[in-house]
Amino acid sequence: MARAKRARHGKAPILDLAPGVSENWQGARIEGRRLVAEFWGTLLLTLVATAAAALHKTDAGEVSATAAAMAPGAMVLAVIYSMGSVSGAHINPAVTLAFALRRDFPWVRVPGYIGAQIAGAISGAALVALILGSKGSLGASSTGDGLSILKALAVEALLTAALVNIILGTASHAGFLGPNAAIPVGSYIALAGLWAGPLTGASMNPARSIGSDVVWKHFSETWIYVVGPLIGALAGVTLEWILKGKPSRAAARAAQGEDRPSANRR
């Protein structure tokens, strides 16, 4: 009824949001704010993850393997706490696609989010190159010595499936977890880096890998870090349907970003 009334007065919303998000949290200005958040959050994640990995490979005594694994997890935790209420803090194309497949996020907004994430990742990798010079290339996503292509693909798919399932699972209970959903997500990313970092770099993020490869012009393994996470995202969404059934309104609010999480709550 409210939507029809706005349409008669020529004030229909610019962007059609999924159920669960209050009607006053939409429009071009709000969407622009979200895209800036996705750009900035992905830039920070790429900067920290790439620089930490490069510095570890350059001087393990200065930046340990544990520190390099913990860095992206801590950065994701900080981004979710600071920007989750603005954009949902996806900062990962695999996460955006997972939310869309789960019906928590409108497909019409997917290209904008992914474009902002890739642009942010390229900018973050460029800053690493500016700061660290040629040794910054050591932070780019790459497979470990002796690891076959199929094993690398499987590792990235498995890591991303678990990541997506954890994100969707915590988002579906946003009503009581709130920003504290950042804790399980950030913790998982750090733990994944501890065991899978030596294997594939534990990227789980096509934007982060593409950004570094664009800056350093290394594309021989880029497809692994795109296809693997996409397969993982699909698997994670499937598992979430099995475990939780239909999507919730709380998940839609968490996925799309809303600075008034109590609005429209039922």
What does this molecule look like?
This protein is mainly α and 266 residues long. It has one domain: Up-down Bundle (Glycerol uptake facilitator protein). Helices cover 67% and strands 0% of the residues. The protein has helices spanning 2-8, 28-58, 65-87, 93-101, 110-132, 149-171, 174-177, 182-200, 206-216, 224-244, 249-256.
Give a nutshell description of this structure.
This protein is an all-alpha fold and 266 residues long. Helix content is 67%, strand content 0%.
Lay out the secondary structure.
Blueprint: H1 2-8, H2 28-58, H3 65-87, H4 93-101, H5 110-132, H6 149-171, H7 174-177, H8 182-200, H9 206-216, H10 224-244, H11 249-256
Helix pairs in contact: 2-3, 2-5, 2-9, 3-8, 4-5, 4-6, 4-10, 5-9, 6-8, 6-10, 9-10
- SS-based class: mainly alpha
Low-confidence segments, ≥5 residues, pLDDT <50?
A: 1-14, 259-266
Number of H- or I-type helical stretches: 11
CATH topology (fold) name = Glycerol uptake facilitator protein
Number of domains: 1
The topology string of helices and strands comes to: HHHHHHHHHHH
CATH C-level class is Mainly Alpha
- If classified by CATH, what would the architecture be? Up-down Bundle
The end-to-end span amounts to 18 Å
Strand content: under 5%
**What share of the residues lie within helices?**
55-70%
Rounded mean pLDDT is 87
Give me the count of strands. 0
Described by the principal axes of the CA atoms, the overall outline is globular
CATH superfamily: Glycerol uptake facilitator protein
Biggest beta sheet attributes: none
As an assembly, this protein is: single chain
